[in-house]
C-alpha cells in the first residue's frame, strides 16, 4: 500500500496527514501512517516517480488541538469502517474537523471516502444537544428515531434556531408515536420550523 501511494503521488490530490501536539511538545500522528511512510520512501529514493521536482522533505500536515480521547477517536476513525463506531463518536470527530475549516468533501476523503451527504448528516446531528447525540448510540432508540431523523432535527436547529426545549419535545413526540419517517419529519420542519 505504501509503495502504491509513493508511485502514484499527486500533490494536487494528496490528503494531508493529521497530527496533534502533545503536552511534551512533540507531535502524535493521528491519521496518515501510510502517507507518511510514502514520504519516507521518497526521501530514500530521491523523490516521487510522478512528481519530479516536488519538495518531498515537507509532508502536508494538519495540526489538531484536541485532547487524548478525541485524538484516539480521530486515529481510530481514520482507519476504520463507519459501522465500527458509535454515532456520537462520528458526530464529535466530524464536527472537530469542520470547526478546523475542512469542507465536507475533505472530511469525507480523510475518513474513508465517505459521501458528502453522509458527512453533512453528521454535521447536522452535531447541532443537537450532546445528551441527545449520545442517545443515538442506543440501537433501541434508533429504531424509532434514527440518524436521518436526528439529521433533520439538527438541520432545523441550524436553519430555524430551534431551542433545546423545543428539540427535546419534538424528539420525545417522534420517539413516543413511532409513526414519523425522516421525510415526514422534514416536511413538518419545513412547514412549522420557522414558527417554532
- Please outline the major beta sheet: 3 strands, mixed
N- and C-termini, Cα separation: 52 Å
Amount of helix:
55-70%
Count of DSSP E strands?
A: 3
Annotation field: number of helices: 11
Radius of gyration: 20 Å
Q: How are the strands ordered across the major sheet?
A: 2-1-3
Secondary-structure-based class equals mainly alpha
Coarse morphology:
elongated
Assess the beta-strand content as a share of residues: 5-15%
State the low-pLDDT regions, or none.
none
Tell me, rounded to a whole number, the average pLDDT.
86
- H and E order: HEEHEHHHHHHHHH
Identify the notable features of this structure and list them briefly:
3 strands, 196 residues, 11 helices, elongated, three-stranded mixed beta sheet, mainly alpha
